[in-house]
What we know:
By secondary structure, the protein is α+β, with helices and mostly antiparallel strands.
Amino acid sequence: MYFILSLIVLTVIDSAKMDSIMANYEREGPGVAVAVVSKEEVVYTKGVGYANLDYGIRITPESVFDIGSMVKQFTAACISELVKSGKLTLDTDIRKYFPEFQEGVTVGHLLYHTSGVRDYANLHLLMGLWGGKPSSDEVLDLLLAQKRLDFAPGTKHMYSNSGYFLLGKIIEIVSGKPIDVYAEEVIFGPLGMDKTFFNVDENMIIKDRVIGYGADKDGYKMNHDFHQTPAGARGVNSTVLDMAKWQMYLRNAKHLWVEGLIDNSTPCGYAFGLECKTYKGLKTIGHDGYTGSFHTKAVYFPEKDVSIIHWQTG
Length: 314
């Protein structure tokens, strides 16, 4: 993936060269979808390989992927909309919504992964429940039962899915609407992201869905987690073309680039569901996602005004 990123960003975007690169991913197995956005124009898009091996359905730019933790930028954008509407602040203590919770954690701490709230996935691993299917209520009960945080809020940065799960619950409490409905109203609908949605029903029929696959010595096997709770930390399905629309919005939505602070002074490297990094000396704003055998990434390079979206299965 990084080979593709470096070629696109550090050289002139050339469709023939990109086709040559993408040919390396062409196989009789699961594949890849890519989109490249320059300023406000999609300048390249392509799908190779298969979305469904049972029926021989190929991946296209319209194929719908489970984007894993890339969801966090959409959860954060919903929080931003609630802040803009005056319904909450980043300094709001989350005990306003969860009175049983530990002291000192704010909405901003959850947003920037500086809360010290233990990751529910790690807790499930310690409990021997890895790979289970907890309900939203079960995850919340587990977090409320914790007697301590991993560290004092605001003093460290440590990635925690629990923080975004709690943000998802706060979105529903404050907006008075399910997260899928609210996100459609304030983000996906206005941006014309017609094939992007929070999947809150694991039994939902999804047109053009890409199935996750892994490989062992006997060949490809399905490796797809259809269980989508808890929303907020995961659960969005989308296409690279829809994600291109979001990237066009994100290039101007600089309020979402603002990083959180450690000890009120040091940028933590994480903004509104977005990692702030550098790649080959260039600033990057983006996020990746892993779930099942899906690996998804979208990254914006402000100095080049180029976004790269690269999603694969298997």
